[in-house]
Design a protein that fits this description.
single chain, mainly alpha, elongated, two-stranded antiparallel ribbon
Length: about 170
């Protein structure tokens, strides 16, 4: 038996109901290997810039005698590194959700709903936590390690991804 909209309790057709439902995006999460590769590329870029700066500022003086640079020097170099990372990647991150490494490997950062994250989500929640944690004397390296090891969970998200509500997907 055919019923019309007038016969139904709901005067809206099924087709109209389908149009009003939010579209669910299926996000293709990037593999751990691609994420590692992108991070490796970004790291190589940072090393190529920071090693000469460290050489010119005396960061390697005393290494042959077993003398380490001071904690203050390491902290300042860490902050310089963060500033350089932001200077290199800010435009890419805000326009496409990518760093140079992510662009090379065809991945990007998005929110859990598939949108481009805000600057706050990128720089404060995601990278701020990730980069600044490592600068805390003594516990920073351990916290940084815990952060990245979280990628081996079933969601394939690091701690900074979970905090910022972001994921890395294939483009």
């Amino acid at each position: 038996m055919n019923t019309t909209n007038a016969d139904n309790e709901n005067p809206v057709s099924d087709n109209e109901l389908d149009k009003n439902e939010p579209e669910v995006k299926v996000l293709d999460k990037a593999s751990r290997g691609y994420r590692l590769g992108a991070s490796f590329i970004d790291g190589l870029i940072m090393i190529a810039i920071l090693i000469p700066i460290m050489y010119l500022t005396g960061g390697f003086d005393g290494h042959s005698e077993g003398v380490e640079p001071s904690s203050i020097y390491n902290l300042v170099m860490g902050l310089i590194g963060i500033a350089i990372f932001i200077a290199i990647n800010f435009r890419l991150l805000t326009n496409s959700g990518q760093t140079i490494g992510k662009r090379v490997l065809g991945t990007k950062i998005v929110t859990l709903s598939g949108e481009l994250p805000s600057v706050n989500d990128h720089l404060i929640k995601r990278y701020g936590v990730y980069l600044f944690l490592g600068q805390i004397p003594f516990v920073g390296p351990l916290l940084g390690l815990i952060n990245v090891l979280m990628i081996f969970g079933k969601e394939k998200q690091c701690g900074h991804d979970m905090l910022a509500g972001t994921i890395v997907v294939n483009c």
